[in-house]
Amino acid sequence: MLARDLAIALDPSLLMEHAGLVPDTWQRDFLRSEAKRQLLLCSRQSGKSTACATLALHTAIYHAPALVLLLSPSLRQSQELFRKVLDVYRLIDEIPTEQESALRLELTNGSRIVSLPGKEETIRGFSGAKLLVIDEASRVADSLYYAVRPMLGVSGGRLVCLTTPFGKRGFFYREWTEGQGWERVKIMADQCPRISKAFLEEELRTLGEWWFKQEYGCEFVDTVNQVFISDLIEQAVNPTLQPLFPDLLKTSAPRTPVMRIFGGSV
Predict the structure, then answer these.
(1) Nearest of 106, 113, 154, 117 to residue 132 by alpha carbon
(2) Cis before residue 65, ω within 30 degrees of 0?
(3) Which domains does the chain possess?
(4) In what order do the strands lie in the sheet with 158-163?
(5) pTM for the model
(6) Tell me: the pLDDT tens digits for 52-72?
(7) Dist. CA 24–CA 7, nearest whole Å
(8) C-alpha to C-alpha distance for 55 and 32, rounded to whole angstroms
(9) Other CB atoms closer than 10 Å to residue 32's CB: what's the count?
């Protein structure tokens, strides 16, 4: 028993095995990673929620007392991710609970796993998170992302953002394409052993190429109601051009000349 607990403490992927689940290679690598910042760009049904639920539970059990926060855009999505945590917890039945509700699990070792909907006013009271998981991150507002990052400042906790793509916009897209200090994991549907080729062929016929690329191919595609595609907008930008009125860009410049130039008044 002691040897098993020590092995699981050192290798979180063994917690999945202890629960009777067989981790995919990418899930095992993700759980074993020591990266503090991780982006998971994964297809639907690829197992990203199960992997993050396992990580949340491992943190609560083996890094106690730990605060683990699970954030999602909506209450329903928060409940779904939290349900994954409870599913794994009930399969291992290791640490007794102090309190359990539809969105909260408190263990007798002092750890808490709290699931919250993506509203800034609901999360500002929390601090010192050991693990912060942002589910459906491509659909989470930038303001929420900026509000939760300081929670890791003192604790030095881990931040994991998981999602399928949702257009070329939002903090997740920017971090994936331009961000620094992130470990990136991309898993497309054809890399998941539980999703058959026949199913994907049917989905492509039914959904069409646009939805299929986003949901199963992990591609950042332009939104269907976008007037100009992102590539055209990027091509129209010329970084070598100088501003017409460079003095107006200086923060120290008074506002009154600006109003006179455009003929306005306040």
Answers:
(1) 113
(2) yes
(3) 2-240 (3.40.50.300)
(4) 97-100, 104-107, 112-117, 67-72, 131-135, 158-163, 37-42, 183-187
(5) 0.81
(6) 999 999 999 999 999 999 999
(7) 19
(8) 9
(9) 13
